[in-house]
């Protein structure tokens, strides 16, 4: 590893105000998915350390929330500046543990930092209300207070940004945070904690617990000091966390699976639609919850669009994310490759045709060829489940009503996209899609300024934007008799 600042790659975890070294007890190896080589080790912690961290976060919260908003904001701002100043090192750590190409990893660091910057600003704007009273002598005050200790559980596909999007608003709101990062990508989380401490954020306020998910998650959900659980990952685990949290009535923030439709209407700019497809489908090698999962193309433009798409995809370079020019890295692990293979085999057995790719890449390991399938239909597995890989399944449709029905025919409701130019169609379709987010003539919708989140089985709550701060605040109503 050629880091400028080697202290950012720390084989230790901050727990309740002190660092626990991986060498101090049992550890977990972290592997580079591009090479299979062991990158390093993190401590294997459990329920006891999670409890310790939760109690420390609760103690640290009081003085933290009593600091002025300007002070908390200033420390978050300093954290943002340190993340940006160390962007190259953070990107390298991210690529080595996650696999995405280095330029894309650097993009994620900037994206992740933008949440810290945004919430540093929002911290100074946590305004309450004064409501006209219901009686002559009454004034109704509404104040916003930190919700309490926050437990955050994050996935491997965005090892930096999914953390900052949760931790920055929680700290800005005045909460303490205990984080369990994905086991595949803990070093990005630890590097963020190193920089948070360097920025002057009290160490006991933000702990990182590495170790077995079920045990740590069990403590996080059972512990009554935790008032909010914020999770990004699969719908199955999100539902489990919600069930586990029911006994202590916690507020849930759930960013779960998607099954995004991407619709190309006959009045679309096809070149722009192809460009948008590449971004939406192949960002992070198809491993995002907002990736296009079902691509619907109107009959009259199907041949033109699919030919352009295949030509563009054939040019995407597959390889180790550390090599220049690589656009598609490895998939995260063997299970991810097997899921992609299962979806392709199922689709082909039910009549889909392969236009491009379809198999493991000649580089071996978990590399996979970018793939295009045509004649895909609603009965196939790929139409119902998130593939989380570099497969573009193309469906045909005839008219607007037909495609809206097909696009909404899923239990999920996270992101959706469509390309069209007719203004009335744009409004009609945007309003009819049952999704938390709609990209119109764009394949990239994620930004710190906008509310990110889904409906139905895709989750609860919103992250980013001014709404993202509200998730970590409680309203208190004070009735004042004057
Ligand atoms: N919405 C999204 O952004 C994401 C969606 N997914 C979807 O989920 C599928 C499976 O991916 P996977 O990584 O297994 O996703 P998971 O939902 O299993 O993992 C996400 C996070 O939850 C943790 N976790 C897992 N089980 C528990 C538990 N019982 N209690 C508490 N925390 C838990 C994981 O820890 P650990 O790593 O230690 O297991 C990780 O930190 C993907 O193929 C994709 O379809 C996956 C990731 C992100
Ligand atoms: O896949 C995810 O977990 C979230 C999508 C990343 C983003 O666009 O913010």
From TrEMBL:
- The question of whether Oxidoreductase is a record keyword is answered with yes
Gene3D superfamilies named in the record: Aldehyde Dehydrogenase, Chain A, domain 1, Aldehyde Dehydrogenase, Chain A, domain 2
Alphabetic keyword roster: Oxidoreductase
Q: Which SUPFAM superfamilies match?
A: ALDH-like (SSF53720)
The Aldehyde dehydrogenase domain is annotated at 19-478
Looking up NCBIfam families in the UniProt record yields:
SSADH (TIGR01780)
What's the protein called, per UniProt? NAD-dependent succinate-semialdehyde dehydrogenase
Q: Which organism is it from?
A: Hoeflea algicola
């Amino acid at each position: 590893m050629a880091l400028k600042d080697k202290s950012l790659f720390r084989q230790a975890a901050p727990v309740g105000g002190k660092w626990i070294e991986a060498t101090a007890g049992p550890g977990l190896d972290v592997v580079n998915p591009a090479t299979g080589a062991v990158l390093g080790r993190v401590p294997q912690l459990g329920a006891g350390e999670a409890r310790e961290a939760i109690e420390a976060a609760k103690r640290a919260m009081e003085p933290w929330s009593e600091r002025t908003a300007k002070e908390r904001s200033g420390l978050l701002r300093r954290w943002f500046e340190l993340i940006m100043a160390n962007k190259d090192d953070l990107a390298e750590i991210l690529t080595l543990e996650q696999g995405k190409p280095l330029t894309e990893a650097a993009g994620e660091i900037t994206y992740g930092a933008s949440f810290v910057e945004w919430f540093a600003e929002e911290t100074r704007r946590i305004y309450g209300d004064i409501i006209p009273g219901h009686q002559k002598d009454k004034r109704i005050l509404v104040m916003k207070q930190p919700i309490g200790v926050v437990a955050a559980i994050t996935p491997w596909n965005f090892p930096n940004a999914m953390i900052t999007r949760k931790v920055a608003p929680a700290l800005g709101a005045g909460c303490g945070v205990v984080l369990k990062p994905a086991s595949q990508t803990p070093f990005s989380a630890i590097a963020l904690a190193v920089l948070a401490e360097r920025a002057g954020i009290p160490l006991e306020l933000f702990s990182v617990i590495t170790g077995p998910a079920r045990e740590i998650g069990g403590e996080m959900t059972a512990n009554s000091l935790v008032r909010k659980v914020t999770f990004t990952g699969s719908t199955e685990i999100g539902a489990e966390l919600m069930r586990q949290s029911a006994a202590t009535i916690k507020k849930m923030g759930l960013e779960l699976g998607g099954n995004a439709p991407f619709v190309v209407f006959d009045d679309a700019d096809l070149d722009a639609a192809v460009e948008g497809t590449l971004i939406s489908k192949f960002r992070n090698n198809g491993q995002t919850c907002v990736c296009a999962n079902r691509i619907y193309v109107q009959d009259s433009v199907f041949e033109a669009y699919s030919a352009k798409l295949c030509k563009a995809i054939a040019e995407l370079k597959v390889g180790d994310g550390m090599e220049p020019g690589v656009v598609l890295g490895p998939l995260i692990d063997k299970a991810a490759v097997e899921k992609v293979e299962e979806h392709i085999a199922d689709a082909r057995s039910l009549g889909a045709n392969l236009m491009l790719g379809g198999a493991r890449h000649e580089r071996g390991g978990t590399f996979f060829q970018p793939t295009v399938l045509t004649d895909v239909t609603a009965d196939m597995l790929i139409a119902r489940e998130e593939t989380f890989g570099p497969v573009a399944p193309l469906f045909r449709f005839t008219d607007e009503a037909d495609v809206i029905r097909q696009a909404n025919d899923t239990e999920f409701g996270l992101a959706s996209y469509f390309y069209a130019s007719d203004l009335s169609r744009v409004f009609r379709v945007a309003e009819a899609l049952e999704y938390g987010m709609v990209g119109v003539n764009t394949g990239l919708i994620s930004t710190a300024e906008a509310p990110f989140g889904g409906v139905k089985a895709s989750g609860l709550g919103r992250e980013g934007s001014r709404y993202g701060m509200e998730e970590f605040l409680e309203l208190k109503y004070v009735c004042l008799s004057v």
